[in-house]
Design a protein that fits this description.
A hairpin with a 6-residue loop joins strand 3 and strand 4. The model has no long low-confidence stretch (mean pLDDT 85). This protein has a single domain, classed as outer membrane lipoprotein receptor (LolB), chain A (Clam). The protein has no helices and twelve strands. A twelve-stranded mixed β-sheet has the order 7-8-9-10-11-1-2-3-4-5-6-12, with no helix packed on it. It is globular and about 65 Å long. Belongs to the ependymin family. It comes from Synaphobranchus kaupii (Kaup's arrowtooth eel). One of its GO terms (molecular function) is calcium ion binding. Pfam families: Ependymin.
Amino acid sequence: MQAEKPRPTPCKPPPLFQGRFVATIGHDTTFLGEYFSDDYREKFRMRISFPNKTVALDQLTLFREKSMYDISYEHKTCEKKSINLPFPPMAIPPGAVFEKQFVLGSLSEPGKGLLLNVWSGTDPQVTGRYEVTSTEDGCLPISTRHYKEPDWHTAVFHDAVYGIEDPNVFIPPSFCKTSQAQNSNEVDG
């Protein structure tokens, strides 16, 4: 009789990593982006572009400094907002329930497949259900789905890189130095 393999436990991705994603909200809003995550210093940057539109979003959040910057390189503008939010690591959420494990690719030869874990649960911050898929080895995010009335919000991650290629990505551009935090734009958790 073969011993049963232990069930996976919630994991954390590397403390420094970056990658790209495709996200969809409902049936009609899709956007592309890249993200940079620094768990050590609680910093996160996300750059988003919308296909066939000139609108773009570049957002730098410095959680320890309680600041968020909405940056426009095109217009050389920077709106600084005060925030009161905890740093959201890209880890499997506490309390997540292991659902299943599967292989992306093939098991017929070594190195031809990627073992993935699927987790689910409820998130009180978005008052809805979620499903997260990550790699078994390294705990890199593959996809997330959050249900927030009335739609699913879905993100698929790719091109993950361990570490941050350009640490300056967490430094606001020089034209942000004249921006003062806007109390009227305070964001709370």
